[in-house]
UniProtKB/TrEMBL annotation:
The keyword Oxidoreductase applies. InterPro entries: FAD/NAD-bd_sf, FAD/NAD-binding_dom, Ferredoxin-NADP_redctase_2. GO terms for molecular function: oxidoreductase activity. This is Pyridine nucleotide-disulfide oxidoreductase. It comes from Candidatus Wolfebacteria bacterium CG10_big_fil_rev_8_21_14_0_10_31_9. Residues 2-290 form the FAD/NAD(P)-binding domain. Keywords: Flavoprotein, Oxidoreductase.
């Protein structure tokens, strides 16, 4: 039996793994891959200690730091498919059918892209509807594209598209909410056209996307936009399906934690990063969450 199993290999999980190793906790980290949502960022300018780094580079750096530790076991390339209470802790099952027992769990499996849930979105997923601008922006070379979402993710997607797309439309239900610096950059580019106070009605096309319909919320008028690519950047939903029956969740489906300790409502279960009800979803804060959780788990183990 392990003292701790860490679920997830994003910034929170990796920082937790490093500290678990340094504290000589008998720990296992399970992850499908490393980096979490940070991997999709073309450029990260607010990671402490680096003026500028790509998401892929950051993920590699964090992974290398974790693998340099010699006191933690790592299972990569598998997903966790089940978590349940056991007689003396918790049982975790991975996608290979392997089962593990642990006294404590640290949940750091983050969140997934939110969907628009409109006609045509599912049909054209990967055929013009995309959720990763850094991955798919090059497909828009010389073509018009639209980004849906006015937060930092949406503004970053616009920046990713500018070197490729002929025109970039930015649509949002309200005024833009992303960082002022990013807003200034995209507003200064003549290729960007910002349309706010609209709702997406339908995505259409033949074999591939050819456009979308949106409604002006003030007038109710339906308008059409002819584009070759639609990049959905409307936020994330926490991946709490595995533990929803074990811990208390917020109204938004996030794991509720004591932010002093990162402990959940269930004894022996802790959570860190974007999956929690924290106010800020940032790489730096996720790293801090993971460290805080492990230090408190270490203290808990000492007192057992």
């Amino acid at each position: 039996m392990y003292d701790l199993i860490i679920l997830g290999g994003g910034p929170a999980g990796i920082s937790a793994g490093i500290y678990a190793s340094r504290k000589k906790i008998n720990a296992l980290l399970i992850t499908k891959d490393f980096g979490g949502q940070s991997v999709v960022a073309a450029k990260i300018e607010n990671f402490i200690g680096s003026k500028e780094i790509s998401g892929i580079e950051l993920a590699k750096t964090l992974e290398e730091h974790l693998r340099a530790q010699n006191s933690i076991e790592i299972k990569e390339g598998v997903s966790v498919i089940a978590v349940k209470k056991a007689d003396s802790g918790y049982e975790v099952e991975d996608s290979n059918g392997s089962k593990y027992l642990s006294k404590n769990l640290l949940i750091t499996i983050g969140s997934s892209y939110k969907k628009l849930s409109v006609i045509g979105e599912k049909e054209f997923a990967g055929k013009g509807v995309f959720y990763c601008s850094i991955c798919d922006a090059p497909l828009m070379k010389g073509k018009p594209a639209v980004v849906i979402g006015g937060g930092n993710s949406g503004l970053d997607a616009v920046m990713d598209l500018l070197p490729y797309a002929s025109d970039v439309y930015l649509l949002n239900r309200s005024e833009l909410k992303g960082d002022a610096v990013l807003q200034e950059k995209i507003k200064a580019d003549p290729k960007v056209k910002i349309i706010t106070n609209v709702g997406i009605e339908e995505i259409f096309g033949d074999m591939l996307v050819s456009g979308l319909k949106y409604k002006e919320l003030n007038s109710g008028e339906i308008k059409t936009l002819d584009v070759s690519g639609i990049f959905v950047e409307i936020g994330y939903s926490p991946n709490t399906e595995l533990v929803k029956d074990l811990v208390n969740l917020s109204e938004r489906g996030e794991i509720i934690v004591d932010h002093k300790t990162m402990q959940t409502s269930a004894p022996g279960i802790w959570a860190a990063g974007d999956i929690t009800d924290g106010l800020y979803n940032q790489i730096n804060t996720s790293i801090g969450d993971g460290i805080k959780a492990v230090l408190n788990i270490y203290n808990s183990l000492k007192n057992q």
